[in-house]
Design a protein that fits this description.
With about 150 residues, the protein is mainly beta. It has one domain. It has 1 helix and 4 strands. The protein has a 4-stranded antiparallel β-sheet with strand order 1-2-4-3. Strand 1 and strand 2 form a beta hairpin. It is elongated and about 40 Å long. The N terminus is likely disordered.
């Protein structure tokens, strides 16, 4: 059963990520690190904090809130990655809702890659490490705010 769920999750996530991953993300302008926790049963909630560091050295603390549809379980995620198209003169453009679609199963631990874009054209590309027990074939919206 676990093997079947893993295969379904992989197929759905690769299908959902293919169009986004094929596009060039734009200009690398910052780095990001996040730490979140999520819980859910059909509907899931995720919350956490992060830091975005511009390539010029300026850093900003972030607050993360996510609503997921199609998630069950409990997990803790650490992620780091790159931010594209964020003007160093307008760091507030990181604020907004980043849409995402993905699938996965976490039993103990797992890894993943995610690319999301907000309404201002800012793209976040994350490498994630998850701990916990969760299954998801989820659409989500991650709200990012500067603290």
């Amino acid at each position: 059963m676990t093997r079947l769920l893993s295969a379904i999750a992989l197929a759905v996530s690769l299908g959902a990520m293919a169009p986004a991953m094929a596009q060039a993300p734009g200009k690398h302008t910052a780095n990001i690190a996040l730490s979140t926790k999520s819980v859910g049963f059909i509907l899931g909630a995720e919350w956490g904090r992060g830091t975005v560091t511009m390539l010029n050295g300026r850093s900003f603390e972030l607050r993360i809130r996510t609503l997921k549809v199609g998630m069950a379980g409990l997990e803790s995620v650490s992620a780091s990655g790159r931010v594209y198209n964020l003007d160093p003169r307008r760091p507030e453009d990181i604020e907004g809702t980043f849409a995402s679609m993905g699938a996965g199963v976490t039993i103990g631990g797992g890894v993943g890659v995610q690319r999301m874009k907000n309404e201002k054209g800012v793209i976040i590309e994350l490498n994630e490490t998850a701990q916990g027990v969760a299954a998801k074939i989820a659409a989500s919206g991650m709200a990012v705010r500067i603290r």
